[in-house]
Automatic annotation (TrEMBL):
Species: Segatella baroniae F0067
Protein name: Trk system potassium uptake protein TrkA
GO MF, one annotated term: potassium ion transmembrane transporter activity
Domain RCK N-terminal: 1-121, 229-347
Transport in keyword set: yes
Cross-referenced NCBIfam families: PRK09496.2-6, PRK09496.3-2
Length: 447
C-alpha cells in the first residue's frame, strides 16, 4: 500500500514509524529538512523536503498512485487544502487533522467529501472520549463500548482482592461464563491467552463481556470498594481538557486548574454552560490541591503539555488519596515508565489518532480499530462479507494465526461472547484481538 504522510510532527512521525514496520510504501513530506533527516536514516521510509500544498511536490511524490494521503501538519487550513489537492490529483482516500470541533458535525461529512477530504480527525476529541469512558468507571483502566455497549471491553489492573488469580482460564472462563479474557499485559510481555494461561497479581487484564455483566466482573476482580467518580480535578486547560469537560456526564463536578491568567478567562467563557470551576494556579502545588478539596476528589486528570509534569502530578494525587488518575503522556519514551509507576490511565493522542487512521487502510468492512497501547496489541471490529472464509466453519476449525483471538460479536444488536463452537455469520460485528501480527492478514478472513 502506498501511503503519503504530510507533516513530520507528533502524529505524522508516530504514524510513519508505525506503518513502516508493516512494510508499507511510505513517503513522509515536510518542509523542515532537520526533522526528516533522522527519520529517513532510522526507518524504512522515504522522506521528501517540500510543501504539502505544492501541486508539483505532490505529483513528484506520486500522489496519483497513493492509496491513502494523510495530512497531519499543525496547520488545519493547510491540511484541508493539501487533502483537496491530493484527492483531485488521484489519491484514493484522504485524512485531514483538524482542531475545529464545528467541522465534526455529522451533517458536514458529505460536504467535506465533496471537497476531497474522505475523513477528518480531531485528536483532542478522541482523547476526551477515552478520558470520559475511563472516568465513568473508577475501577477500570480502559473501557471500550461496541455498538453502544452491546459488547464492552474492560482493561483492569488486578490486585490482591481479585478472586480469579492463579487459576487456568479454562476453569474460570468457559463457554458458559459471561466474560472472556482476551489479552493480558504482564510486565513488558503481552499474552493472547489460551485455556491453560492464568491471571497473576498486578496483571493488566482485558475482559470482553456484555453490559449486564459489568457488575459481575467488578465483583470477581475485587473492585466493589472503589467509589464511583463524582468529583473530578483537571490540571491543564488545553483543547483536550475543554473537550473532556464539555462531554462529561452532568453528574460530575469539575474543577479545572490552569496557570495562565488569559487562558483562565477563555475557559470561564467557553465552559460557562458546563458550570466548571476554573482555578488560576499550579496543579503541582499541594497546598492548592488541599485547599480545593483533593481529599474529596475521586479522579485527578493531568492534561498539561509536559509528560513529566503530568506523571508527577498523578503520583502526588495518588499519595493524597485519589484512586483514579489519568495522565496525558505524549512522549512515547515515557509511556512504559508511567505504566511501571502504576499511575493509572495513560492517554496518548498520537496512538489514538493512529488507530482512527489505520482503520482506513483495511479493505474489509471495519468499523473500529484501536491500539491497546498498554498491551501492545490491536483490536478491531470486522464485519464479514457473504461467503467469506470466517463464515464457513466454527471458530475452533478456522486455524486462526498464533496471537489472534476473537472476543465477541454483535448480531442484530445483541452482544454475545464467542466460543470454539460459535458459527460466525455474514453481517455480524466481530471483535478480533491481535498481537505481533499484521492486521492485513486477518482481514483476508472477512473478505
Amino acid at each position: 500500500m502506498k501511503i503519503i504522510i504530510a507533516g513530520a510532527c507528533a502524529i505524522g512521525t508516530y504514524l510513519a514509524k508505525l506503518l513502516s514496520r508493516n512494510h508499507h510504501d511510505i513517503i513522509l513530506i515536510d518542509d523542515d529538512a532537520e526533522k526528516l533527516e533522522q527519520l529517513g536514516a532510522n526507518f524504512d521510509l522515504m522522506t521528501m523536503c517540500a510543501s504539502c500544498t505544492s501541486i508539483r511536490s505532490l505529483k513528484d511524490a506520486g500522489v496519483e498512485k497513493a492509496d491513502l494521503y494523510i495530512a497531519v501538519t499543525p496547520d488545519e487550513s493547510r491540511n484541508m487544502t493539501s487533502c483537496t489537492l491530493a484527492k483531485a490529483l488521484g489519491a484514493r482516500k484522504t485524512v485531514s487533522r483538524i482542531d475545529n470541533y464545528e467541522y465534526m458535525q455529522p451533517e458536514l461529512e458529505q460536504f467535506f467529501r465533496q471537497l476531497g477530504v474522505t475523513s477528518l480527525i480531531y485528536p483532542e476529541m478522541l482523547a476526551a472520549k477515552d478520558i470520559n469512558n475511563g472516568l465513568k468507571m473508577s475501577w477500570v483502566r480502559q473501557r471500550w463500548d461496541v455498538h453502544d455497549g452491546a459488547l464492552v471491553m474492560l482493561g483492569i489492573k488486578l490486585r490482591e482482592s481479585c478472586e480469579i488469580l492463579n487459576e487456568p482460564l479454562k476453569n474460570i472462563s468457559g463457554p458458559n461464563d459471561p466474560y472472556h479474557v482476551v489479552a493480558i499485559k504482564r510486565g513488558s510481555d503481552t499474552i493472547i491467552p489460551n485455556g491453560n494461561d492464568e491471571l497473576k497479581l498486578y496483571d493488566l487484564a482485558y475482559f470482553m463481556t456484555t453490559r449486564q455483566y459489568i457488575p459481575y466482573i467488578r465483583k470477581i476482580v475485587g473492585k466493589e470498594h472503589y467509589v464511583d467518580v463524582k468529583n473530578v480535578m483537571i490540571m491543564g486547560g488545553g483543547r483536550t481538557a475543554v473537550r473532556a469537560v464539555k462531554t462529561m456526564p452532568e453528574y460530575m463536578d469539575v474543577k479545572l486548574i490552569e496557570q495562565s491568567d488569559r487562558r483562565c478567562e477563555y475557559l470561564n467563557n467557553v465552559l460557562e454552560e458546563q458550570q466548571a470551576m476554573v482555578i488560576n494556579g499550579d496543579g503541582r502545588d499541594i497546598s492548592l490541591l488541599m485547599e480545593e478539596g483533593i481529599k474529596n476528589t475521586q479522579a485527578f486528570v493531568a492534561l498539561t503539555g509536559n509528560a513529566e509534569t503530568n506523571i508527577l502530578a498523578c503520583l502526588t494525587a495518588k499519595r493524597l488519596g485519589v484512586r483514579k488518575t489519568v495522565a496525558m503522556v505524549e512522549n512515547m519514551d515515557y509511556v512504559s515508565m508511567a505504566e511501571s509507576l502504576d499511575i493509572g490511565t495513560i492517554i496518548n493522542k498520537k496512538a489514538i489518532a493512529a488507530s482512527h487512521i489505520y482503520q482506513m487502510m483495511l479493505d474489509a468492512n471495519v468499523q473500529n480499530v484501536r491500539f491497546l497501547m498498554s498491551a501492545n496489541a490491536d483490536v478491531a471490529e470486522f464485519i464479514p462479507s457473504e461467503g467469506s472464509k470466517i463464515t464457513r466453519k466454527p471458530v475452533k476449525d478456522l486455524g486462526l494465526p498464533y496471537g489472534v483471538t476473537i472476543g465477541g460479536l454483535v448480531r442484530k444488536g445483541e452482544g454475545a461472547l464467542v466460543s470454539g463452537n460459535t458459527q460466525i455469520e455474514a453481517g455480524d460485528s466481530v471483535m478480533v484481538f491481535c498481537h505481533n501480527i499484521n492486521m492485513k492478514k486477518i482481514e483476508n478472513l472477512f473478505n
